[in-house]
């Protein structure tokens, strides 16, 4: 199978349960909730996306014709001789391209494999960590995950809607202006804090990579 990758880079995980963990991020091109074009943003299911996932022209991006080619490109980004290899597949929507074959090939190289998905499509069974982040009114098909991370508030995706999802951890991330490259404290941040305090099964997570100005 061929893979279209927008970008790949080595950095720290900025949010959620693995916040601060050194990780390789593999961002697949394409999404099923928005085409990535500004002209259609307001009409899309996910209108607040702050990510460019169109094409394959980003850092270390490209078309990879085989699992082996992509595995080698990912492994080349990990520090030489370093252990605890960790790769996060994201997008767009990674479930459009991610396969068990790719995951198994990376696991054979010592990688833990995680995904950040909107939860609308089936995910490969071999993943080591599953984070889903529902968006708007989109129907969720993934009903069990390690981490449920919800942008808050969303009128059509409030926390009460997802009580049936089995998740080890539940996080709320304050909705930020998609045009802001820096995380700012606003009314959504305060509302998220207040909700977590009133519903302690949820935990606050912030986009620390924006606070720290790292990729």
UniProtKB/TrEMBL annotation:
UniProtKB keywords: 4Fe-4S, Iron, Iron-sulfur, Lyase, Magnesium, Metal-binding, Queuosine biosynthesis, S-adenosyl-L-methionine
Positions bound to S-adenosyl-L-methionine: 48-50, 92, 133-135
SUPFAM superfamilies named among the record's database cross-references: Radical SAM enzymes (SSF102114)
Catalytic activity: 6-carboxy-5,6,7,8-tetrahydropterin + H(+) = 7-carboxy-7-carbaguanine + NH4(+)
Pfam families (alphabetical): Radical_SAM
Gene3D superfamilies reported for this sequence: Aldolase class I (3.20.20.70)
Gene Ontology annotations of biological process type: tRNA queuosine(34) biosynthetic process
GO MF annotation list: 4 iron, 4 sulfur cluster binding; carbon-nitrogen lyase activity; magnesium ion binding; S-adenosyl-L-methionine binding
Chain residues that bind substrate: 12-14, 27, 90
Domain Radical SAM core: 18-215
Domain of life: Bacteria
Enzyme Commission number(s) from the entry: 4.3.99.3
Residues holding [4Fe-4S] cluster: 31, 46, 49
Binding site for Mg(2+): 51
Cofactor binding mode and count: Binds 1 [4Fe-4S] cluster. The cluster is coordinated with 3 cysteines and an exchangeable S-adenosyl-L-methionine.
Annotated pathway: Purine metabolism; 7-cyano-7-deazaguanine biosynthesis
Family: Belongs to the radical SAM superfamily. 7-carboxy-7-deazaguanine synthase family.
Physiological role: Catalyzes the complex heterocyclic radical-mediated conversion of 6-carboxy-5,6,7,8-tetrahydropterin (CPH4) to 7-carboxy-7-deazaguanine (CDG), a step common to the biosynthetic pathways of all 7-deazapurine-containing compounds.
Subunit description: Homodimer.
Protein name in UniProt: 7-carboxy-7-deazaguanine synthase
């Amino acid at each position: 199978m061929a893979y279209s990758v927008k970008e790949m880079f080595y950095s720290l995980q900025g949010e959620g349960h693995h916040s601060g963990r050194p990780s390789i991020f593999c961002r697949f091109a394409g999404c099923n909730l928005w085409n990535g074009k500004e002209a259609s943003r307001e009409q899309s299911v996910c209108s607040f996306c702050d990510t460019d996932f169109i094409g394959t022209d980003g850092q270390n991006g490209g078309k990879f014709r085989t699992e082996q080619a992509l595995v080698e490109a990912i492994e080349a980004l990990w520090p030489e001789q370093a252990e605890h290899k960790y790769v996060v597949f994201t997008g767009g929507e990674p479930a459009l391209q991610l396969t068990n074959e790719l995951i198994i090939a990376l696991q054979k190289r010592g990688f833990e494999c995680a995904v950040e998905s909107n939860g609308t499509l089936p995910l490969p069974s071999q993943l080591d960590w599953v984070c889903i982040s529902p968006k708007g009114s989109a129907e969720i098909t993934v009903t069990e995950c390690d981490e449920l991370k919800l942008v808050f508030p969303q009128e059509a995706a409030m926390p009460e809607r997802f009580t049936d999802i089995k998740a080890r951890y539940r996080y709320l991330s304050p909705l930020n202006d998609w045009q802001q490259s820096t995380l700012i404290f606003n009314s959504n941040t305060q509302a998220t804090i207040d909700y977590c305090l009133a519903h302690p099964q949820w935990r606050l997570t912030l986009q620390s990579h924006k606070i720290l100005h790292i990729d």
